């Protein structure tokens, strides 16, 4: 069993965003939840919440607004570790992220390298959500693997 703690920096604003929209529903009706929008991301994973914290990897994948009733994302991500003893290893997350809930739990469905055959859970808690949409999210991950 391995326990990990890191921060996820989701930057949607400015000239160098790490999360960008790629598609939206072809509909004339407005959705307050963003239903039908898709984005691709390549967000930094760091040891702390500060912008200058050490980068330990990237969160790479696709997220989609998948709820008519609340701001909730379907997340398909790979946590790609690039530093330390997990360098070159990945964890795959696939699950629902009810973004405005204080505490969210999502399944880890696989991994590679050190995390081969991983199964586990990732919990997320928003550390900072700025008016421009940028967010820093604290993650705790517990995985079983070989």
UniProtKB/TrEMBL annotation:
Q: What is this protein called?
A: Dirigent protein
The protein's superkingdom reads Eukaryota
Q: How does it associate, per the subunit comment?
A: Homodimer.
Organism annotation = Anisodus tanguticus
Q: Which UniProt keywords apply?
A: Apoplast, Secreted
Entry's Gene Ontology BP terms: phenylpropanoid biosynthetic process
Question: What are the top taxonomic ranks of the organism?
Answer: Eukaryota, Viridiplantae, Streptophyta, Embryophyta, Tracheophyta
GO cellular component terms given for this protein? apoplast
Q: Which compartments does it reside in?
A: Secreted, Extracellular space, Apoplast
Task: Give the function comment from the record.
Answer: Dirigent proteins impart stereoselectivity on the phenoxy radical-coupling reaction, yielding optically active lignans from two molecules of coniferyl alcohol in the biosynthesis of lignans, flavonolignans, and alkaloids and thus plays a central role in plant secondary metabolism.
- Signal sequence, start to end: none
- Its main subcellular localisation, reduced to a broad class, is secreted
Similarity annotation: Belongs to the plant dirigent protein family.
